[in-house]
Specification:
Layout lengths: L6 H12 L5 E6 L6 H13 L3 E6 L22 H4 L11 H16 L3 E3 L15 H14 L1 H4 L6 E3 L7 H10 L24 H13 L10
Parallel strand pairs: 1-2, 3-4
Helix pairs in contact: 1-2, 1-7, 7-8
């Protein structure tokens, strides 16, 4: 289970656990501006009682190219229309491909047939590696690239329980599954004390989801 500590990954993890799977959680310290999400991932992992939680360090600041890994301003106060067009500067080049590759390696060792990622292609920031066609392509590659797949013993599935859900539907599903959203963090530029900025795309999508779901948002916002 790729676990970032945000709403989507926490919800996907809770839904997967509810389906009877044992969770092996994988979180990345990749040099992200919002490194506070790593502690959020640890909180969520403890709450879900995962079988094992690994936090791997890979420094994508060496490449930069994103407002999350380089000295580039995080966009603020964007309208829903603006967020619906183009790929924003918060996109980290090939991030999900990198993360899923690590997850695939661990899955082979665990002899696990399922990798879970909390991507959604409805209320999202336009990232190309959140689309269903990308997930299908990676799943096909995983079968070609693994010993178990080549030997025909096991086909790896990339599970995306949220991919067709709006943010409001995700919040409702997670609430029904018992997710404590006060443990999570979505903000791209939180304050040193962990308070969310309330103005970045991630905060805007989160707030929209809670409002439309009719569920109180437990996030501490700076404004």
């Amino acid at each position: 289970m790729l676990l970032s500590g945000g709403v989507d990954s926490a919800t996907a993890a809770a839904l997967t656990a509810r389906d009877g799977f044992a969770l092996y959680a994988l979180t990345f310290a990749y040099g992200q501006r919002h490194a506070a999400e790593i502690e959020a991932a640890r909180r969520v992992a403890r709450a879900l009682g995962v079988a094992r939680h690994e936090v791997l360090t890979i420094d994508l600041r060496a490449f930069g190219g994103s407002a999350l890994t380089a000295d580039i301003d995080v966009p603020k106060d964007r309208t829903p229309e603006a967020m619906a067009h183009g790929i924003p500067v918060t996109y980290v080049p090939a991030r999900n491909t990198i993360f899923l590759a690590f997850a695939l390696g661990w899955a082979e060792v665990l002899e696990a047939s399922d990798i879970v990622i909390g991507v959604t292609a409805i209320d999202f920031s336009g990232y190309p590696d959140c689309r269903p066609e990308y997930i299908a392509a990676f799943e096909q590659m995983a079968t070609l690239a693994t010993r178990a797949g080549v030997e025909g013993r096991q086909r790896v599935r990339i599970r995306t329980p949220l991919i067709r859900l709006t943010k409001a539907e995700i919040v409702r599903a997670g609430t029904a599954a018992g997710v404590d959203y006060s443990l999570t963090l979505s903000c791209y530029e939180p304050a040193p004390d962990g308070a969310a900025c309330g103005r970045c795309d991630a905060c805007a999508l989160r707030r929209k989801g809670f409002v439309e779901a009719g569920v109180p948002d437990p996030t501490r916002y700076r404004r």
